[in-house]
Amino acid sequence: MAGLLEISKISVESLGQELHYRVTDSSTGEAVANVSPVAVAEPPQVSVLKRFGKRVVLGQLGGWPHLRRHVPRITVLVTDASNSAVMFLDRADKITGNPYPPQCAVIEPDGRVAGYLTDDHYESPMPTADVVDAEGMAIVGGKHHLRDQTGAAICDVVTRLAMPPLPQELNYDPNVDTTRFVGQDGTVWARRRGQSPLLEISPDTPYPIRRMILASMVADTITHEYQVGAVSPYKPPTPLQAVPDPYPGYADVHSRYMEYQQEFIEWYRKEMTG
User: Fold this and answer.
1) Can you give the three-state secondary structure of the chain, one letter per residue?
2) Where on the tree of life does the source sit, at the highest rank (predicted)?
């Protein structure tokens, strides 16, 4: 059986238990890793008066459920087939007023930061017909990045969509790339085709990038559960307090990001409400 960071076709599936997932080698159908929660923060206690005040401050945006929600911090552990720890994935709080998924820190088993999964909240998440690639597909790039421990981008996660005059059926064609993980030199290290959850990773992809791609797949699975749309139901994750902290440095790993998130929310409110 190929090791977790050696396989070329990978998928992540829910096990039906909250925040428990299985990573599968889609070439063989074998399970190569498991994901389970080790720390889930308590949802913040907000008084009725304060909640009402926030809705007033947000103006019309306060009616959008995904803006009103505070999704607490979630930390999961990824273990390989021998049940050895591979990494922690630590998803920051998504605080009220922020419409975007929060950053995730990828942590070595000994507590060292391996990298970050980040979104530039100030960049538009929507494709435009005037930004296209060589095949005429509209693209969104430069927004979601895989970063190393220093914060330097090592991969740009690029979304590709067919927009008129291209036929919309291209977005569902299993032979068409709809997501690409693109290195800083333009190399495509991994791709998702059509609407498939399967990710294909190039055999030449370096180990650090493979690890971050795997982390991104797990993070996307968590986001799919908790970053729901305006009319979708939302149930906060069950609190699970780790005692002691799951890894050294746990308390401070998101401190700068939380400041960034607060700054962005203020900017976003002004931009959207005038």
Assistant:
1) CCCCCCCCEEEEEECCCCCCEEEEECCCCEEEEEEEEEEECCCCCCCHHHHHHHHHHHHHHHHCHHHHCCECCEEEEEEECCCCEEEEEEECCECCCCCCCCCEEEECCCCCEEEEEEECCCCCCCCCCCCECCCCCEEEEEEEEEEECCCCEEEEEEEEECCCCCCHHHHHCCCCEEEEEEECCCCEEEEEECCCCCEEECCCCCHHHHHHHHHHHHHHHHHHHHCCCCCCCCCCCCCECCCCCCCCCHHHCCHHHHHHHHHHHHHHHHHHHC
2) Bacteria
220 within domain boundaries: yes
Number of domains in the chain: 1
CA atoms of 258 and 92, how far apart (whole Å): 8
- Rounded to whole angstroms, how far apart are CA atoms 170 and 194? 8
Question: According to the model, what pLDDT value does residue 202 have?
Answer: 96
Structural domain of residue 73, as residue ranges?
A: 9-273
Kindly report, residue by residue over 164-199, the tens digit of the pLDDT. 999 999 999 999 999 999 999 999 999 999 999 999
Name residues whose C-beta falls within 8 Å of residue 148's C-beta, 6 or more positions apart in sequence. Answer: 114, 115, 154, 208
Residue type, 209: I
Whole-prediction pTM: 0.91
Q: Which residues contact 178 (CB under 8 A, 6 or more apart)?
A: 159, 160, 161, 171, 192, 193, 194, 195
Asked if residue 257 belongs to a domain, the reply is yes
